Amino acid sequence: MATFESQNRRMPKIEACLKANGLESLDACNEMLLAKGIDCDKIIRGIQPICFDNAVWAYTLGTAIAVCSIVFNRTIAGKSYIYPLIPFSWSEVKKRFLRGRLPHTEKRQN
After folding, report:
1. DSSP assignment of 52-67
2. Cβ neighbours of residue 29 closer than 8 Å, sequence gap 6 or more
3. Interior CA angle at 58 toward 52 and 63, to 5°?
């Protein structure tokens, strides 16, 4: 169970945020991120070893919201934000990340 300073005062807002983003609990967010290879506790304590626990849990919640937003939302065109990677499409990855030459067009003289 997640524990941190002033937890009783902060939990109603945190629970509202979890509910608004379709997440179950802080512990479930942490488990989801650990399954994806993201250890928020290690990242935060690596940057600031004397940080408060609420900073770690805030980072965990923010990272879980960001990951869920990228994975589950779609672009205006209806494609996933992670489309060229899942399902993998080499031609789309090349178009998005590698520079290519523009097609040559001749100028018209009037």
Report:
1. -HHHHHHHHHHHHHHH
2. 18, 23, 60, 61, 63, 64
3. 135
Show the tokens assigned to 9. 């005062």
In sequence order, what DSSP letters do the residues of 43-107 get, joined into one string? Answer: HHHHH-TT--HHHHHHHHHHHHHHHHHHHH-B-TTS-BTTTTTTTT-HHHHHHHHS--PPPP-PP
Give Dmax over CA atoms of the chain in angstroms. Answer: 76
DSSP bridge pairs for 74:
80
**pLDDT tens per residue, the chain (110 residues)?**
678 888 888 889 999 999 998 889 999 999 999 998 999 999 999 999 888 888 888 999 999 999 888 888 888 878 777 777 777 888 888 887 787 777 777 777 76
- Name the pTM for this structure: 0.63
